[in-house]
Amino acid sequence: MCEGYVEKPLYLLIAEWMMAENRWVIAREISIHFDIEHSKAVNTLTYILSEVTEISCEVKMIPNKLEGRGCQCQRLVKVVDIDEQIYARLRNNSRDKLVGVRKTPRI
């Protein structure tokens, strides 16, 4: 395996794409661009916003004009910055996995 190669998780690929777009993005666009279910796009956005501190985002909530569905809002997200620390963390995690694989005894 190439030393410089880091396998990127889906949430990071999505965040990098959003940052490259440099505009407000909704989950539907993510689901179309990455060919994933809308619910997975929504869950990935939620994960980025709530769990990944190295990714800085701005969020806008726009109310839908649909009747009878309760309070439904469209969430628009713009990725402002991705801290370089996230790449170092991923590299360290992949090295740990390689070390773990090498330590596995052969039968």
UniProtKB/TrEMBL annotation:
Keyword Transcription regulation set for record: yes
Keywords: Activator, Transcription, Transcription regulation
InterPro entries: Tscrpt_reg_CaiF/GrlA, WH-like_DNA-bd_sf
UniProt key word Transcription regulation: yes
A GO biological process held by the record: DNA-templated transcription
Protein name in the entry: Transcriptional activatory protein CaiF
Naturally occurring in which organism (per UniProt): human gut metagenome
